[in-house]
Amino acid sequence: MTLETYGPPLQTGGTTWMQEIVTLISSRGDPHLSQTVPNWTRAPWLEQYYCADFLKASSSRPRVLTTHLPHPLLSPALQASKARVIYVSRNPKDVLVSFYHFHRMANFLPEAGSFSAFLHQFLEGKLHYGSWFDHIKGWTSQASDLNLLHVTYEKMSMVKMSLYLLLVLVLFCFFVSLPA
């Protein structure tokens, strides 16, 4: 079985957490990989310069890839593949606050300015990766066409949902569409 999992959540929406969960599932619960290999190597970012070389050099399956890219850039390739998409979203208020603080500490991003100005940029879709609202709508509206599992950060945070979420992810990643 070939499984390529793409995680396209928008900024600060639970990406790293999902990378860890998928790594543990794909390694059958063995934490060695998570503890010894950086997440950007285990689940490289499509938008980073090193990803193309990684894909050429890696023959292992399943491959786990991560991206914040919007739906229109990936949809055609994903529709023609057997990839599974795990889309993690988060409440826009929490994304806004988290992304604001991330902007303040990350030197590779533009200066965040005041929270009020940042809020207006967020609402107008003028930050990196564009509109949060368009990003969510673009991916979730295509769920049935893309073999997409939509998980929210808030559900991941609920202790009672953790076992349920883990079961759903295991089934989604490994048991759906297996040959009989």
UniProtKB/TrEMBL annotation:
EC number(s) per entry: 2.8.2.-
Molecular-function annotations in GO: sulfotransferase activity
Signal peptide interval: none
Protein name as annotated: Sulfotransferase
Alphabetic keyword roster: Membrane, Transferase, Transmembrane, Transmembrane helix
Pfam hit, one: Sulfotransfer_1
Transmembrane segments: 161-178
Similarity field: Belongs to the sulfotransferase 1 family.
InterPro entries: P-loop_NTPase, Sulfotransferase_dom
Species of origin: Austrofundulus limnaeus (Annual killifish)
Residue ranges occupied by any Sulfotransferase domain in the UniProt entry: 13-157
